[in-house]
């Protein structure tokens, strides 16, 4: 098949399909072509072994390039599970024996190619937006029976049951001050076993450079138990993205990326860079610690 893709550019392609298609239309065929593209066997993403159309496997030669060419759609009913199929072009820059199969992942399984995503103006803020930081209230707190430096707290996060959280605050905060205290909780970390107690979350606190003074972050009076906290302006609340799963937080190391940039400012307000930490009732603060690290 000879298909003119762009002016003065002619592509000779051989269609390799698992069954004959009596009438097809090649659409969106002005995508990427390599400089020395020759014969290009086309392979359908539907042939990927997972059956989820998330990738494809092709027999390739050394120095290959795999390019998305377009979508083939049928005009008559066939036994394919959907009416459109993505096709890819494999090109080699030099003739060589057939090599091992090469697998290419396709992130978007919709029949229409996804539009390029718009680059974010602040990727760090976007990453912080996937953290599930919430207002909580400590219902009960006690010393960990197996660890001298740990408290165990039951924390109400507006869920059907309170969460159990372990915190290394024994050296810094008296136990009797924790009862019925409103706190800020990072709620989408993977649970950790801490000396026999499963801790499902983390209380966020500010500490000075010497780490001798530590204060729990305080949500403003009037904050709703369980509400998500965000960074930025008041109106940014409406633009909050969904929180990532604990597995995603761990796999992508989102907390490790964001945490070094969390600090209190000169007014003791918690912030991510210039983006202030907020609830629906106002700003999250440390009582007295300025320019302190938050963790």
TrEMBL record:
Location of region: Disordered: 99-127
Compositional bias annotation for Low complexity: 100-122
CDD domains registered for this protein in UniProt: tRNA_bind_EMAP-II_like (cd02799)
UniProt KW keywords: RNA-binding, tRNA-binding
TRNA-binding domain ranges (all copies): 127-230
Top-level lineage group: Eukaryota
A Pfam family it matches: tRNA_bind
MF GO annotations: tRNA binding
Gene3D superfamilies, per the entry: Nucleic acid-binding proteins
Record protein name field: Aminoacyl tRNA synthase complex-interacting multifunctional protein
Originating organism: Thalictrum thalictroides
């Amino acid at each position: 098949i000879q298909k003119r893709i762009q002016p003065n550019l002619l592509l000779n392609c051989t269609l390799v399909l698992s069954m004959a298609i009596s009438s097809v239309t090649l659409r969106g065929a002005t995508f990427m072509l390599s400089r020395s593209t020759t014969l290009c066997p086309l392979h359908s993403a539907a042939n990927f072994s997972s059956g989820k159309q998330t990738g494809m496997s092709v027999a390739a030669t050394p120095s290959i390039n795999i390019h998305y060419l377009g979508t083939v759609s049928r005009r008559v009913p066939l036994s394919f599970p959907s009416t459109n199929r993505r096709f890819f072009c494999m090109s080699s820059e030099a003739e060589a024996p057939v090599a091992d199969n090469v697998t290419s992942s396709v992130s978007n399984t919709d029949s229409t190619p996804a539009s390029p995503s718009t680059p974010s103006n602040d990727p760090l803020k976007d990453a912080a937006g996937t953290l599930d930081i919430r207002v909580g209230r400590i219902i009960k707190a006690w010393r960990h029976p197996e660890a001298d430096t740990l408290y165990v707290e039951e924390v109400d996060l507006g869920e059907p049951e309170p969460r159990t959280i372990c915190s290394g605050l024994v050296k810094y905060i008296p136990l009797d001050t924790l009862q019925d205290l409103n706190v800020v909780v990072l709620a989408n970390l993977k649970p950790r076993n801490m000396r026999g107690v499963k801790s499902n979350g983390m209380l966020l606190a500010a500490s000075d450079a010497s780490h001798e003074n530590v204060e729990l972050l305080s949500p403003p009076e009037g904050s709703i138990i369980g509400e998500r906290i965000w960074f930025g302006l008041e109106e940014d609340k409406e633009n909050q993205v969904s929180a990532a799963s604990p597995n995603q937080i761990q796999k992508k190391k989102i907390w490790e990326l964001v945490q070094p940039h969390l600090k209190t400012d000169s007014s003791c307000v918690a912030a991510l860079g210039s983006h202030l930490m907020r609830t629906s009732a106002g700003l999250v603060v440390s009582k007295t610690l300025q320019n302190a690290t938050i963790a």
